[in-house]
Write a structure and sequence with these properties.
Layout lengths: L7 H27 L7 H19 L2 H25 L4 H19 L25 H5 L4 H19 L1 H11 L1 H6 L4 H27 L11 H11 L4 H24 L5 H19 L19
Helix pairs in contact: 1-6, 1-9, 1-10, 1-11, 2-3, 2-4, 2-9, 2-10, 3-4, 3-9, 6-7, 6-11, 10-11, 10-12, 11-12
Amino acid sequence: MDLSAINPVLLIASLMVAATPILLAAIGELVVEKAGVLNLGVEGMMIVGAISGFAISVETGSPWLGFLAAAIGGAVLSLLFVLLTQVALANQVASGLALTLFGLGFSSLMGQGYVGVKPPQMDKLNIPVLTDLPVIGPILFGHDPVLYLGIALTAAVWAMLRYTRMGLVLRAVGENHDAAHALGYKVVRIRIMAIMFGGACAGLGGAYISLIRVPQWTEGMTAGVGWIALALVVFASWKPWRALLGAYLFGGVTVVQLNLQAAGVAIPVEYLAMSPYLITILVLVILSADKSRAPASLGRIFHATH
């Protein structure tokens, strides 16, 4: 066992990378749930985003076009959920599970020709002076632009929910869709936009895995990250900054357990691999005592009277 091989600076920098796909997916789902919709299809939208982004990035040579394609792919797949839950008024839980199963199968079909292919690399941000700072530079200023986009998106969603009319309307629809409808708000239209935003964020999170974190395509490579993002929204009590902290906790434990495996720690690999999920569940249980509650209309079907 050689713990001296673990570099703390690289560990923290890797933690931020590992947390980003979870954060992107969780922030998108947080907005969806704030609108009163429970979409369990996050995993499916992430994996479709992963292959859409990977394929377009490989074919065009541009990671940016890949990320754009991933966002579009996730949003388009979310329209299937819209059709089922907002038009056909189907059960949201069953529809979300169907979306995940469909996404896993569809991505497997799309990705058959891309196994073993290397995608083009995205350049890291190189901020003069700041990137060269000892310790702080590599940790905070040596990452790809999408990582910073995830943090900026968290801040933007927090500000939108707290300070804007749009955020107020979104929360009103999530709390009492009948009252919001009576006030003249287009409940279904607002929910469709929220669902598509959630789909685009999940797609970006998936592409981050296939283009940056693990730059390759393998079937089922999201490996439950979408489910962790769903749990994270509850653990965060529907608050964006808590989602950020939760994503970094899960990312941190994931990176630490990989480093411990590499260092040859005398703990069975299976237990180390389980640890991120166990610790996330433990924190979820501890924080469930929080007084914050879910949006009152979450998961309820809205029947427009006229």
